[in-house]
Design a protein that fits this description.
Layout lengths: L1 H9 L16 E2 L3 E4 L2 H12 L4 H15 L9 E7 L5 E6 L36 H12 L4 H14 L1 E2 L2 H18 L14 E2 L2 H13 L1 H5 L2 H12 L6 H6 L3 E3 L2 E5 L2 E5 L6 H12 L12 H21 L10 H4 L2 H7 L11 H4 L12 E7 L5 E7 L9 E2 L4 E2 L40 E5 L2 E6 L7 H13 L5 H6 L3 E2 L8 E2 L6 H9 L16 E5 L5 E5 L6 E4 L1
Antiparallel strand pairs: 1-19, 2-10, 2-20, 3-4, 3-11, 4-7, 5-6, 8-9, 9-14, 10-11, 12-13, 14-15, 15-18, 16-17, 18-19
Helix pairs in contact: 2-3, 3-4, 3-5, 5-7, 11-12, 11-16
Bound molecules: 6-diazenyl-5-OXO-L-norleucine.
Amino acid sequence: MRRLILIFAALPLFHCRQAPAPPTGLVTDNAMVVSARKEASEIGVAIMQNGGNAFDAMVGTELALAVAYPFAGNLGGGGFMVYRMNNGDVGALDYREKAPLAAHKDMYLDSLGNVIPGMSTIGATSVGVPGTIAGIFEVHEKFGALPIEDIIARVIELVDQGVEVTEKQSRRLDAYWDQIVEVNGDQTLFYNKCMPGDTLRYPALANTLQRIAKNGRDEFYKGETAKILSRFIQEKGGFVTEEDLARYEAKWRQPIIFRYKDLKIISMSPPSSGGVTINQIFKMIEPYDIGQYHHNSAEAVQLFTEAARRAYADRNYYLGDPDFVDIPLDVLLSREYVKGRMESFSFNEATTSSDIERGTVEILESSETTHYSIVDAEGNAVSVTTTLNGAYGSKLYCDELGFFLNNEMDDFSAKTGVPNMFGLTGAEANSIAAEKRMLSSMTPTIVEKDDRLWLVVGTPGGSTIITAVAQTILNVYEFDMSMQEAVNAARFHHQWLPDNIRFEPEGFSEELKQQLKSKGYRINEGRNGFIGMVDAIRVLEDGRLEGGADKRGDDTAVGF
Ligand code: DON
């Protein structure tokens, strides 16, 4: 009997995957949009009900978020889209902001070579050349089925109706009001009311959208809007000129595609670090069969943390705009290299980040972006993350045009080794140069299982985006959760530097933290807000769709 027990104890604990978890989120038969606001999801769905496809819905949802979720939805920012057609074709669009022509490596440094506080984070000096309008027109031109004027008309209707301020939104508006006034003065036309239940209206935005609907993409980059926008940014002391706008182009990119067990994961390529970094994380954890441990157990947290630590160290050193730097992707993503990186990992003791690379950093500010996932009735899938970078971006609001401008310039590394507002340190690869795109962490992702569409997933959260997306996929695949459970589950984060694990406030016991501390892990006790707001869709075995709308926000799944 004892021998039998010993044999069983010695058997490797291979995780036997259970039947897929029954859905707990909204389930629909045909199509779905999950986004940060009900109004935006509804517009996307209405477009699909009226004969539009997932790409038409993308255009409508993107613009509707600028209205209903000005915190991050935007005309003055940029983003990334990863898509998968129902025939299996995949691709990615980069409509990331870029540095203006006047930008240069030391533009945020004083005469002593120190980073000037605030210059890359608040006000006109932090604004990069916006990419969103170029992005939606590019998507529409390639894949759209409905006239773009009809899509924009729906958004203008929403602007005219106004958007009801939710409780959560009102709290955020309050939190950033002082900064908005500091940048724009107290006569700003944005935000005249902010109590829950009040209505936000932006008449100027309706006019801007009308001009764009009539004159097309060039209205924003070469027309009256371009003139108003560049004049406004320059009057406020920023760098974006008419020429910068005229030269902006969105770019189609090859997505990062890799296998994890029997999944095929398709994610965003540079200038986002998202796809490369989750690729490394998945490759690093694959040999350890993380599913044999409990979800968020000490072992699972350790394994994931050590992979993230190593992947972020590479991210910060090697990654930048591929049009400006050579990224050794072949090496970084090879199984051999990745395996070598994990050779120093042991369950007995934490690796320290200084053993991987050096540096000391502190995270300064938290802020927002937004993600939405779409599947249409034909099975085409779109995964988009879009951002102003900080909450309300640079806080600079153009009264005449009715939208906020990004502070994306802070995603560059202003000085090697000095952390940006997400505590990310960068190196030469992500230094500032004219017309270069700043490195991003946005990770819009699509996952195939058995060659069929399975998940569409992404999130905001700055540097935590990559780990939140990876954990959501693992939650469904390895820990047998439904889409909604996977999105709601408690998350944690490690990004190499600062060398500590950040846990969400709920879901991690003191005992777990003590256990990790005893192995040498440092825990970030000071910073324990939410990590990400994941909006995702799972295709169930019978072909129906399950939405995962993050309970952390006002996020809503809508479908039919
Ligand atoms: O591109 C990036 O990585 C950042 N600008 C994203 C910002 C973000 O997610 C803010 N949300 N919390």
